[in-house]
C-alpha cells in the first residue's frame, strides 16, 4: 500500500513539475495560490523498508520499557525520600522544642540546613519530570 501511495505521489509530483517548467500559469491555477508566489512541488518521500520499520519499532519498545522501569524505581525512591525527610524534620523539631540543654541552637541550625539540602530530592523529582517529557525516537 505504501509503495502504491508513493507511486501515486510520484506521478503527481512529475506532473506538477512538468507544469511548473512548461505552463507556469496552469501550475499557479492548479495550486489556487493567489497571495504568495508558488514554489516547486514537494518531492514525495520514499516509504521505509519493512526491516527498518521493524527495527525502529523494536527501538521504540525498548525505550518505552526503560522509561517505565526508570519511573517505577523513581516513584519508590521518592516515597522513601519523603518519609525520611519528614522523619528528619520531625525529629529535629522535637529536639529543638523540647531540648533543655545548650544544643537547641545546634538543632535549629541543623533543621535549617536540612531544609536547604532537601532541595536535592526536589531536584531529583524535577529531573524525573523532565525525563517524562522525553519521547522515543520517531519511526519516520
The chain-level structural class is mainly alpha
Low-confidence stretches: none
Order of helices and strands: HHHHH
Q: How many whole angstroms does the radius of gyration measure?
A: 31 Å
- In round numbers, the mean pLDDT is 78
- Helix residue percentage: over 70%
Summarize the biggest pleated sheet.
none
The end-to-end distance, rounded to whole angstroms, is 17 Å
Number of helices: 5
Shape: elongated
What does this structure look like?
This protein has 140 residues and is mainly alpha-helical. It contains five helices and no strands. It has helices at residues 2-22, 24-31, 50-98, 104-117, 119-132. Helix 1 crosses helix 2 (24-31), helix 3 (50-98) runs antiparallel to helix 4 (104-117) and helix 3 (50-98) packs antiparallel against helix 5 (119-132). The longest helix is centred in the middle third of the chain and has 49 residues, at 50-98. The chain starts with a helix and ends in an 8-residue tail after the last helix. The mean pLDDT is 78.
Amino acid at each position: 500500500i505504501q509503495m502504491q501511495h508513493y507511486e501515486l505521489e510520484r506521478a503527481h509530483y512529475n506532473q506538477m513539475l512538468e507544469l511548473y517548467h512548461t505552463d507556469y500559469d496552469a501550475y499557479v491555477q492548479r495550486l489556487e495560490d493567489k497571495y504568495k508566489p508558488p514554489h516547486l512541488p514537494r518531492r514525495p518521500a520514499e516509504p521505509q523498508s519493512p526491516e527498518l520499520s521493524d527495527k525502529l519499532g523494536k527501538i521504540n519498545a525498548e525505550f518505552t520499557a526503560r522509561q517505565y522501569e526508570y519511573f517505577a524505581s523513581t516513584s519508590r525512591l521518592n516515597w522513601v525520600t519523603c518519609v525520611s525527610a519528614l522523619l528528619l524534620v520531625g525529629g529535629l523539631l522535637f529536639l529543638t522544642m523540647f531540648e533543655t540543654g545548650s544544643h537547641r541552637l545546634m538543632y535549629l541550625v541543623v533543621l535549617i540546613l536540612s531544609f536547604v539540602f532537601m532541595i536535592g530530592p526536589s531536584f531529583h523529582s524535577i529531573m524525573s519530570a523532565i525525563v517524562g517529557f522525553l519521547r522515543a525516537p520517531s519511526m519516520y
